Amino acid sequence: MAGFDRPTPGVAIVGTGAIGRAVAHRLLAGGRDVTVWNRTESRARELVDAGALPARSVREAVSSSTLVLLTVKDHAAAEQCLAQLDPDLSGRTIVGMYTGTPSEARLAAQRVASLGAQYLDAGIQASPEMIGTDAATILYSGAPQAFEQHRTTLELLSQPRFVGTAPEAAAVWDLALFGVWYDAQLGLLRALETARAAGVDLVEFSRTASTQLGHVVAAVSATVSEMQQRSYPAGPADLTEHLTVLRHLIELRAGRRLGDGGLPEVVARIEALIAAGRGGEGLTATVE
Ligand SMILES: NC(=O)c1ccc[n+]([C@@H]2O[C@H](COP(=O)([O-])OP(=O)(O)OC[C@H]3O[C@@H](n4cnc5c(N)ncnc54)[C@H](OP(=O)(O)O)[C@@H]3O)[C@@H](O)[C@H]2O)c1
User: Best mutation site among 13, 14, 16, 19 for ligand 1, i.e. most ligand atoms within 8 A of its Cβ?
Assistant: First the structure.
């Protein structure tokens, strides 16, 4: 086992699931020395066959390299891996490369700092097959010097985007961006479920649904500008008109498998704004 004071400039991958495997293959293709450890040893074998060095323990993997990527399932798994390490990891950067919450990112940063290493939190906006392509974005936050030190290696995986020195910044971006996808996709599923239950032709319906989704995309920059300027013009409908439609929608969605999408909270917010004399404003006023 390599001594803890002599890491190579290679990369250790802890966790060779779908993301870990994709990351390791890309780093190998990019000419990096890659050491791999996986809880279930057999799942790391394909990477060893491809040229990675096998580690017999998390400790051995971490001791081998200056950059350690924790590509495990979640924060609990990362904690279990970190618990196996000695507090003498100076010179190393540990990256939490899994989907987690902002508070988990803060805990991981504290844990890694207590081991003497630098921490980066990563949010993966990519599927395994996108790793290493222009379609992949990976968000990083935490120690800026660690990001700069390893930037060329991280660039092999995606367009790396440093989003803040607070350790939780990448998790905030990551979850908020996943939220955009879930809200849009679940909104589509609710609409399709309702249409199907009413015997509507789904292919016909989906053409107009696509146009509606396009309206959301087209309004992104105007919405941001309204929030920045704290100015909420009504646009095609004001809050009193939105209220009527949203009440109809809650009635239509009653008893549906995917629920009402939290619309009662939005309606309560709109009612409060109307009561405050702001019924002539637009929907963006609800986030003030
Ligand atoms: N796959 C995607 O498209 C995607 C996209 C964006 C973000 N992510 C995120 O990336 C992370 C990894 O996802 P994945 O798709 O690679 O998951 P995965 O294929 O299920 O792999 C999970 C990895 O975590 C390891 N693991 C689980 N529990 C462990 C523990 N207690 N101790 C040590 N190792 C443990 C597994 O080891 P074993 O082989 O021994 O089970 C495996 O290597 C997740 O947080 C996921 O949300 C994934």
Answer: 19
